[in-house]
Every structure is written in structure tokens, then in C-alpha cells.
Amino acid sequence: MTPRAASRPLRLGLRANAAQFALLVAINALVGGMVGQQQTVLPLLAESEFGLTGYTFIFTYVAAFGVTKAIANWFAGTFSDRFGRKPVLVAGWLFAVPVPLMLIWAPDWWWVVAANVLLGINQGLTWSTTVVMKIDLVGPKQRGLAMGLNEAAGYGAVAVTSLLAGYLAAQYGLRPAPFLLGLFYTALALLLSGAFVKETREHARLEAAQHVGRADGIHDHLHAGLTDRQILAQTSLKEPALSSASQAGLVNNLNFGLSWGLFPLLFATAELSVDQIGLLFALYPAVWGLGQLVTGALSDRIGRKHLITAGMTTQAAALVLIALGDGFGGWALGTMLLGAGTAMVYPTLLAVVGDVAHPAWRGRAVGVYRVWRDLGYAVGAVLGGIVADLLGLHAAVWAAAGISAVSALVVAVRMYETHRPEPTPAA
Q1: Domain that holds residue 409
Q2: Does 3 reside within a domain?
Q3: Nearest to 356 by CA among 230, 195, 198, 240
Q4: Could you tell me the pTM of the whole model?
Q5: Is residue 422 part of a domain?
Q6: What tens digit of pLDDT does each residue of 165-195 get?
Q7: Distance of CA 49 to CAs 40, 42, 259, Å?
Q8: Which of 109, 187, 291, 318 is least enclosed, having the fewest CB within 10 Å?
């Protein structure tokens, strides 16, 4: 390292940290791809190779993934604040190494569940850490844009990999071809994370040193010295914006968890081909991923609250369309609308946490928020499975629509606006 590079001061902002930010975006795309490799394939594998017919039992792998990922999010936030971001990122990718091999060689369904436990740890550690690192780098002015780019990369990769995995499954069978994608993603991510990613914790410390509270004093009680227990309580229940974000995140991922396990089975009732099912499933995260390129930056301009309320309402309407549908056209419209609603919500909720949490404990706050959000996978899988077993697949979608509408109402009533765009200077 040259003396000039060694003395170069840290700066916050997307442009000042463009190279590292772009690298983290690419790594988060690989994180999303690890989920996409299995979403189209596993529900079909459950029925065709393992003979599973009960929806609740089929959804066990989604529940195992969601619970494990939720727990891993907590450790990701805590460890990244205490030990640094990069070690947590690398450790998360080490947990991914056995996952594709277990899915390829699984002799029974419990191997699939075990693989998803490891995948949940991988996703919790890696995705949470890339979120925190990007917030560290960009500072307070561009959080929405940063989260939009992060989530667009992750869920865009879910969509592309879901579509590609569906194609490989149709051409070469359900195993092993789709899961070879995961082997490649893991090897590449370990190389990039270990050799090229730089630690960003000092950027958070720089922001903490420059931190100025809101003029209205609304965050004065959220000072730098909160304990882990206090951070958990504020993010989960006490602080209106943080707790509203946590419940909305849970419901959002409830919809995703339900769709993960249920949509391929619902679409199969219309005797669609594997390719068509893969395309339908890919439309949801594709619109979600691309939409976040717009909605994240939009929240920096117009604020967070109304975008979140509109997004949860849009998700409820989309689920109604899917519940009423019975063929490719109606379901395609519904899944695209569901993706649009999710795009309004997903990066904006993360930006809310970044707005409210003090830089000294922001990693832990992001971890707690993501605990609640990713528990939605398990809640959606279990709720969807029970309702589908008792009342049918369409009834499970109706239940999710109702829950999404209630979530939108909670945000509208309880959350305050957390981001106040800077006024444009007078000419």
C-alpha cells in the first residue's frame, strides 16, 4: 500500500465507495441465487421423488429455512457490531458449501430440511452483513437507494436462477442439474468475499462521530449506549417506526414463504408445464427485484411511510387476484402485482431501520428487524400448509391477503415518517 493510499481519509457516500459497493451488490446477487436454485424445484421434487402429499409436511423445508435464517440474522447483527463485518460474511459462505451437495444426494426429505437449515444460516449471515456494509458505506443521505440496489440484486438473482433452474429441471431432470448452480455461486462468493471485500465498520464509526439527532427530538431516547436487550425491545415493540417495520417485514416474508411452498403446487393444478411454473414463479421476484431500483431511491425523495403502506395494500390486492385466478394469464398478472407491492416495501423497511437506529448499534437493529422479517418465512409456510390442508390452496392465499391488508393498516396508523429529505437550496 502506498503512503498516499494509507493516508486517504474515509468518506461516506455511494460515489466515494463505488468499487466496494458494487462488489457487495454482486455478492448479494450470489446470496439470492442460492435461494433461487431450489424454489421452483423442491416442491415438485417433494411430490415426484419423495411421494409427499400433505402441504404442511412439504412446507417443512421453508419453515426450517425461515427459523434458522431469523436466528442467524440476530448473530449477524451482533457479531458484525462486535467483531467486524467481513468475518461474518466469509463465515456465512462457508455454511453454504454443503447445501447443493445435500440436495443432489438427498435420500429422503429430511436431508432437504437439513440442507435448508444450513441455507438459512448462510442467508442470515451473508445477506444481513451485506445490508449493514452498504448502509455503512453510503451514509445517511442515500440509504433508500443503497437498499434498493442491494435488494434488487438479491431478488433479481432469485428470479433469474429460479427461471434457469426450472429450465435445467425440464431439460435434464430435477436432480442434479439445477443444484450445480449453487456449487458455482458458493465457490465464486467465497473467492470474492475472502480476497476482495474490505471491512466497513470504520465507516459506521465515522458516521457515529458525525451523528446529529433530529431537530424534533423524536429519537433522543435512542442514544449510542443501548444494551442488546434494549435494542431488541425498541425494534420489536416499543419504538413506533421500528416495531411497525418489524411487523410489516414479517407479513411481507409470510407472503414470500407461502408463495415459495404453495405457488408451484397451485400452478400445477392447472396442468401447467414445469417451464411455465418456473416462469410464473420467476415473475414475482423479477418485478420485485427490478422495482427496487426505483422504489429505494424514491423513498429518499418522498419519504418511507406512504410507500410502505401502499406496498402492503398492493400485496393484498395481488393475492386476491391470485386466489381468484385459475390459469396462466391471471396468475401472471397477480404475481407481477405482488412483486410490485413487495418492491415498494422491501428496501424502504430497511431504510427505516437505518434512519432510526444509531450507527453504534445499527448492525444489531438490522439483525433484530431481520429476525422478525424472516420469521415470516416460517409463519407463511406453516400457516399456508395448515390452511391448505384444511380448506384448500386458494383459501391459504385468501388468508395471506387478509393479513397483508391488516399490516398496511398498522403501518398507516402507527408509523411516523422517518426520512425528511433535505430542502432544495433556493436559486
Answers
A1: 12-203+228-414
A2: no
A3: 240
A4: 0.78
A5: no
A6: 888 988 888 889 899 999 999 999 999 999 9
A7: 15, 10, 21
A8: 187
